[in-house]
Amino acid sequence: MRIDIITIFPDYFAPLELSLIGKARAAGILDIRLHDLRSWTHDRHSTVDDTPYGGGPGMVMKPQPWGEALDSVTAGADAPPRLVLPTPSGTPFTQEHAKRLSREPWLVLACGRYEGVDARVPADAERRMPVEEVSIGDYVLAGGESATLVIVETVSRLLPGVLGNAESAVQDSFASGAMENLLEGPVYTKPAQWRGQEVPPVLLSGDHGAVDRWRRHEALRKTARNRPELLRELAARRMDELERSDRELLLELLEQMPGE
Ligand code: SAM
Hints:
Blueprint: E1 2-7, H1 19-26, E2 31-36, E3 49-50, E4 60-61, H2 63-74, E5 82-92, H3 95-102, E6 106-110, H4 120-125, E7 131-135, H5 144-156, H6 167-171, E8 193-194, E9 197-198, H7 208-226, H8 228-238, H9 244-256
Parallel strand pairs: 1-2, 1-6, 5-6, 5-7
Antiparallel strand pairs: 3-4, 8-9
Bound molecules: S-adenosylmethionine.
């Protein structure tokens, strides 16, 4: 997969040299290209922002450098990339969303700063490529760089060959089979005893069926504690697909929830 990132802070992306993503780049699975938006400015101060029309606080990113940057990055392409614009006013970024993006051959991420990018930039880009505005959460960051890191990391680890064990992506929170969109339960490693606490005996039993059941039950319990709305969704949509013991536990947990 090719990913182009346009930003006024290319140095912000040093972490993309590390760990899984660094290795995936070295292995040729990921082709990440960083671009400094200021190289498409034409004034002495490399200006990328200006005051907002209509007044108000802060500055807005000028359309001209963005337009030229996108033209240049996508020039000569056989098929256009998908442009992703991180913004708090975008659609929520979810694991499902990441899966969809991981099937794209080419993404361009445009990092906003100040009060955001002039609205004509995505409107203009949309004439040539699919564009989506994506929010990584209901809070406001200072810039799109950290949101871009989140999106790139989430998408990259889903690419074939990036994770050492592809099975671990299947077992993650929000990603496990009939119980998908649940949180993953607790995990343990050696030693079996630590500071007076023991690993749950079932995990040492060698009984894979019992281990799987325990994991599903713990996932249900954790979801009930931290994200009850996801459990209600599971009950409403996929109750019939659950094994009997999972269904019984789900009903018990739903009964214990406040307001049920
Ligand atoms: N005035 C904008 C608003 O209220 O929607 C906020 C601009 S924010 C200070 C600057 C930049 O940070 C945005 O253009 C966007 O690139 C990024 N950003 C901030 N919060 C974000 C979030 N929750 N998800 C994705 N990007 C975000």
